[in-house]
Amino acid sequence: MTTWTSDELDRIAAADELEITPLRSDGTPYRSTPIWVVRDGDGRYVRSYRGGDGAWYRAARAGHRAHVSAGGVDKDVTLAEETDPVANDRIDDAYRAKYSGYADTYVVPMLAPRARATTLRLLPRRPGAGHRSS
Question: Both ends of the chain: CA-CA distance in Å?
Fold first, then answer.
């Protein structure tokens, strides 16, 4: 596992969307999907607007690996489920703050229990690094 640089943290935080490409166990990519990304401290988090029914989320959860691109940053990541309610409250606040200019039609579902249940932390890893089992 590696860490985000300060520049990567800032560039991803400034991006409206992040492209996530979940990876199969053999490393081949699924379809890339644009999603919202928020920052909580040094963590980067994503959620599925459609909850567990989101295709990108199902693929990401199956392999716990993805490639992400945002703000000029391209990175291989491990995806860790965030289940801490206090952390999820802070992540809700981050979604409200970052996407306040969007209609409640989009923001409110990202704060609903079905989306909160899909919260994933993006943990940077070296390209080609092995899969960590969960």
Answer: 15
62, 51, 63, 72: which is closest to 9 by C-alpha?
A: 72
Q: How much is the average pLDDT of 118-132?
A: 77
Residue 41's nearest CA partner among 104, 100, 86, 107 is: 86
Q: How far apart are CA 37 and CA 68, in angstroms?
A: 10
pLDDT given at position 132:
40
Nearest-angstrom CA–CA distance, 19 and 33: 5
Q: Is the pTM of this model over 0.85?
A: yes
CATH no. of 6-125: 2.30.110.10
Task: Tell me if 96 sits within 8 A of 107, measured CB to CB.
Answer: yes
Domain ranges of the chain: 6-125
Q: Per the structure block, which two tokens stand in for 84?
A: 């801490």
